[in-house]
Design a protein that fits this description.
Keywords: ATP-binding, Nucleotide-binding, Transport. By secondary structure, the chain is α/β, with parallel strands linked by helices. Helix content is 31%, strand content 30%.
Amino acid sequence: MSLILEVKDLVKSYNGKEVLHGISFQVEKGEVFALLGINGAGKSTTLECLEGLKRYESGSIQFFNKNGSQSKLHNRIGIQLQSSALPGNITVYEAYRLFCLANKVKADKELLERFGLKNLLYKQYSSLSTGQKRRLHLVLALVHNPEIVFLDEPTAGLDVEGQVALHEEISKLKESGKTILLASHDMAEVEKLCNRIAIMKEGKIGYIGSPEELIPAFSDTAEIALKTEDSYELGNLNFSKYLKRDNGYDYYKSSVLSDALLELLQFYKENNQKVLDIKINHATLEEKFMEFSKEELA
């Protein structure tokens, strides 16, 4: 796949204090890529540098394999507005026409209808619900059919129904082949929507990979539960640590799953203990993310 965006060794400082410490990542055409982190991790600052809203001290940002200012590429990039970006008395259709005019595209109403805004054309921005505002922000980012769209916490502040509705729209964009760069603190959101995730903390990127790749990247620790007729505590073996006996299962923890399973099954067999059932529980990505957020990065 071809690269849409490449960031190399990006450094950003505020008042002499470095807040982005040489981060690097790539976004491929057609993927949904997330910057994931708790508040203060550097997600929004990274997006603002990419959008040309903030200057950075060093490093490089390259769109479409071209060096140059973001202003020269504005017709190929869509940027989600923040809530304070529109005046309260502007109507939905006025905002839409303004953005279409600025991007030199026809102001037809198909996009507004697609996002459920056609019946709100003459409603003022200040009277829209949070979910309606977020849908309008997404529409305004898409009026010129950009090749890559930046979304900064797109569902923050929405109720569950609003989150589900906006996730459906983002999923449709993904299915259509649109490239999306998403900043979020919501693990469930990025796990559901994204092809790859860069986990940020304190201005650094700790891990990059697909949701499936990130769990073993964080830690390959798994919990093994063996159901036996009788309790038989093995203690700590070479590849596993005994945890507890609960509801007929002996629980073990291991970071080398295949070796631990072979060792445990062999040991039970040698001691005439019949294994009735085996359960293996991997930590969820959200659990690993919370662990990572508490750790210190080098």
